[in-house]
Amino acid sequence: MANADAAETPAPVASHRDIEAVFRAEHGRAVSVLVGTFGDIDIAEEAVQEAFVAAVRRWPSTGLPPSPAGWIITTARNSAIDRLRRESSRLDRYEKAALLHADDEPAEEGAVGDDRLRLIFTCCHPALGPDVRVALTLRLLCGLGTAEIARAFLVPESTMAQRIVRAKNKIRDARIPFRIPDEADIDDRLRSVLAVVYLVFNEGFKASSGDSLVRADLCGEAIRLGRVLVALLPDEPEVVGLLAMMLLIDARREARTTSDGAIVLLADQDRTRWNTRSIEEGQALVRACLQRNSPGPYQIQAAINAVHTDAPSSAATDWWQILALYDQLLAIAPNDVVALNRAVAVAEVDGPQVALESIDALDLDDFYLFHSIRAALLVRLGRTNDAAAEYDSALARVSNSSERQFLIERRSALVLEAGGSR
Questions:
Q1: How far is CA 263 from CA 76, 153, 214, 267, in A?
Q2: Count of alpha carbons within 13 angstroms of residue 416, beta-carbon side
Q3: Cα-to-chain-centroid distance, residue 171
Q4: For the chain, which has fewer Cβ within 10 Å, the N-terminal or C-terminal residue?
Q5: Residue limits of the RNA polymerase sigma-70 region domain (predicted)?
């Protein structure tokens, strides 16, 4: 009898983990469709949140619907219509037009691809500041809460909330269009979109401040955004190149630190800990880019990382090829940071003295890595006192605790080798 009773009480068929996975995958899709329908970010975002609250109540007992995204979009759309009808006396003519338009819309997902692309370009509109573009992208496309975004960039939650509210108000008041840019403007705007995704990834892979070197959550969100962009813009080689670069760099994440969080340099990493699946996918994307023969900065950086992940050991790295790729990158995207990274390859090919001379004129005095790289080159040249001074300069400029500890240990080792203190 007990067995019969148990059989009559089915276990929940959709866990909170299942619903969270749907939220991560479909939040941006749902918000973008509703912004396209109603023309209002706040209405869309609140309606999608209400739909997911309803999903949390229903799905553990009813199970995931055949199309979770369709269910969320339809539920959110109906919720938004109900809200607008309740507030119809206070609607302006634009909102009334949106309500009439929504009533005519079928309860389907619609042109989701175009809507998501429109939302990405809206979040990354040049009228918004770079930090706000990142915040809006994480909020609307990835579904991160204000507190999560604030923690990621180490600002108070109230500060981040104000930034997001101001950005939404600017979009509304300036009537920034919810559209894909014209063909004449697409390249410049796409560069802004890719820069935002790269900034999210870079902050995750090497946090600018805080206690941890890596923010795996931000790396994951950036890669997910990269996949969305590739799905929406498969013929844009720089979009493919950015995703390839992120996958190849992120593949080394587990080997970059010890169990207690200490930094491990690329040359010292246990390559068996690298993620082979990410490497294979990233290298396949790099090969696809090469076939297009339309090189851009992200594609070249992806190719550089493909060469690194090709080598079974640090000693087997093809530094000549890496240097050639940096020369190509410097030719199409000349800047001092690229020149600084190139110097690492120069040191392996032509020696530390040539590398040192190649960066001495760079205007990077405020950048801690400039001083850290100079210190490493000076160590190789036996110039211990000068190297110690450069480590001091790097320490005065670094904000991340893990990187600070790494520099302290390097400087201390230098003093011990010299047999005294400076």
A1: 45, 21, 10, 12
A2: 6
A3: 23
A4: N
A5: 23-88
8-state DSSP, 345: H
Alpha-carbon span 175 to 150, nearest angstrom = 27
Separation of alpha carbons 375 and 390, rounded Å = 5
Nearest to 163 by CA among 131, 199, 209: 131
Per-domain boundaries in the chain: 1-110, 113-233, 365-422
Structure confidence at residue 109 (pLDDT): 39
Query: Token pair of 318, please?
Result: 């093809």
**Token match 């269910």: residue?**
71
Token pair in block for residue 170: 């600017």
Of 348, 283, 286, give the one whose Cα is nearest residue 320.
348
**Residue closest to 108 by CA, chosen among 167, 36, 53, 161:** 36
| DSSP string computed for 116-139 | HHHHHHHHT-TTS-HHHHHHHIII
The 10s digit of each residue's pLDDT in 209-237 is 555 566 677 788 889 889 988 988 899 99
Q: In angstroms, rounded to a whole number, what is the distance separating the alpha carbons of residues 234 and 118? A: 16
Q: Distance between CA 411 and CA 391 in Å, rounded? A: 6
Contact 117, 178 (CB under 8 A): no
3-state secondary structure of 362: coil
C-alpha closest to that of 334 among 362, 313, 306 = 362
Yes or no: say if 141 and 225 are a contact pair by the CB < 8 Å rule.
Answer: yes
pLDDT along the chain (422 residues), means of 10: 47 73 82 85 89 89 86 90 75 53 46 69 84 84 80 79 89 80 75 86 69 70 88 91 97 88 89 96 96 94 97 94 97 94 96 96 92 96 94 91 89 74 48
